[in-house]
Amino acid sequence: MLWYMSEIRTTNIRMMGFSLPSLGLNMLVTAVFVFLPPLYAETLGLGAIVGGIFFAAKLVDIAAAPLWGLFMDSYETRWGRRRPWLALSAPILMLAIFMVYNPPENADGLYLFIWLATLYVGWSAWTISHTSWALELSRDYDRRSRITGLLQAMTMVGGILIGGGWAIMQWISTPTLEQTASTIGWFMIITLPLTATICILSVPERTTPNRPHLGFKKGASIVFTNMPLLRLLVANFMISFSTYFVQALFFFFVAFTLNLQAYTGFILIFLLVGGLIGLPVWVRLSERWTKHSCMQIAVATGAITSLLLLVLPTNAVILTTATFLLLGLNSSANEFLPRAMMADVCDHDHIQSGSERMGLYYSLLQASSKLASGIGIFLVMSVLGVFDFVPELGPDNTNIALQRLRYLIVTLPIIAYIIVIGLMWKYPISREYQTQMRGIIEARERESI
Hints:
This protein has 16 helices and no strands. By secondary structure, it is mostly helical. It has a single domain, classed as MFS general substrate transporter like domains (Growth Hormone, Chain: A, Up-down Bundle), CATH 1.20.1250.20. Helix 3 (49-74) packs antiparallel against helix 14 (358-386), helix 4 (83-101) runs antiparallel to helix 5 (109-135) and helix 10 runs parallel beside helix 12 (317-328). The longest helix is centred in the middle third of the chain and has 32 residues, at 141-172. The radius of gyration is 21 Å and the shape is globular. The N and C termini lie close together (8 Å).
């Protein structure tokens, strides 16, 4: 019976094709959190309410994500458990991207909320289906790191494409923020269905049995007493919060505090290139040590390097570019390690529940990221006023307000990183423990044949 196979192996070319939907992940993350807040707050004049709208849309998304995960885990279609929903999410995303990146002049808060919530729901279906499929390809502790590392590499490439397109536009002309957002939106509309099609044709799913009916009370009890899960969710929340918080401030900080508005796309590329350079190092370190110790090192690196932002001079393109390259080095670890660790947490759940619930567990991981992103955007857009920074004024803000952005973009992420280090201290799922769990699961499956 095929579902007892614990590994799906194929050629490197096919694995590359399979990983292509991850291009869209960072395209969406980078484009949503870098472009949309200033577009709607500054250009369309919605101001500080943009933070509240992002948070409200995220609440819709947070509610939808676990439902997607449960639904995908529970029902097998003739085309598989994951592939149909990846295909379905593409047209939802295409429509939402068109609407949110090409707003009419009279776009108001309700317009942004409706289409941003639609984009988030489609985004959840896209990422939960694809990443759950990827995490189910192997039960090996280290191969999971390599698979999620490959997905993360594609994620970083997607962000580089967005940043590169932005930089090229700034180099050949002086596009408005509206023109930039529209162009990048069209690029994503073309790219997403193409990558989904290639993925679906590249790698089969590892067929799994329909999960047994646990009942809501028992199923929820297993989830909420899973201490490795709870620690990972809080750690992922803190990491995601720091990431989205910095991304939401990126344009304001680089363009106005550092007075480098014409180079924002160019600098963003190097932030993402840093992540791509650091990725193989973090994958190798996770194989040499453990994933949780590697995460501690990565966030410590991020906390130390972020202090450089406090001393960056204005108008220093090369120095700023080099600094953001260093800042990017730990970013890939912050993305792929929680996903690889969640696959191991799912093994812990498998032993207790008797079935694989990868969709549910990854959706919970994603929900923690989404909550963090919503709170991050809300805080940025709300706190800016407290710091006397007015987005609509741009470089005409007072020097004191511009300099306060330095402390804002550094302090909260460092606090979040320190919390992550504590959460990963003596984390219980090591390589040895995961190997034991894998042996128990596979022994059960052999007995049931």
